[in-house]
Hints:
This protein has about 270 residues and is an alpha/beta fold. The protein contains ten helices and nine strands.
Amino acid sequence: xxxxxxxxxxxxxxxxxxxxxxxxxxxxxxxxxxxxxxxxxxxxxxxxxxxxxxxxxxxxxxxxxxxxxxxxxxxxxxxxxxxxxxxxxxxxxxxxxxxxxxxxxxxxxxxxxxxxxxxxxxxxxxxxxxxxxxxxxxxxxxxxxxxxxxxxxxxxxxxxxxxxxxxxxxxxxxxxxxxxxxxxxxxxxxxxxxxxxxxxxxxxxxxxxxxxxxxxxxxxxxxxxxxxxxxxxxxxxxxxxxxxxxxxxxxxxxxxxxxxxxxxxxxxx
Length: 269
């Protein structure tokens, strides 16, 4: 354990599992008090109890569904009411919508946009003024290498949402230059989490070679270090860095054709 975050508080969305849970552990290891939010109270309670006992950090658990547009201001209002402030924001909450755009309902897509795009921008907008006033703040937007590559067949808005997180991180980082506030887009690739089980594609992605996968703990540790340094874009791991670099070098028509061919590896059907 280090004391890097002692006296500071981190807010982690989607903290009940996967990269969010791993990021919460990493932040607690560095001494940050935590605000943990997700939809599952039992998992938040269990994680909070563990981190309080192991690291002696303070935790606040707030059950919210970020598909509700009123969730971000309620969440920040609750934090301030508890006498806490957000020094480190991890916009991690997310999921995938299986199926093609025309096969899914607009309600599914609208909720997806609210969680992965609008709520992230809203929370960032809510915490930035106080961060700037204090002269310290860190924003970690958990994006994906999908945001650096062509779109796929199925999960239609997933890559688009991650590209938004990358571009908005870059803009916020530039706007906050010299204030002590930074923004980082953390871009993992295939990561061992519940994500693929929830959207029903575990069988497909399990066929991918093991070297393409990272643990959520490694993604969180790498992402935390990059965010604390103030890196604007962090692509996790050498394999993902290679894929992202290749995506920049290939002609667009070739990259699209390759993505079309490989889309079956990470979708239903």
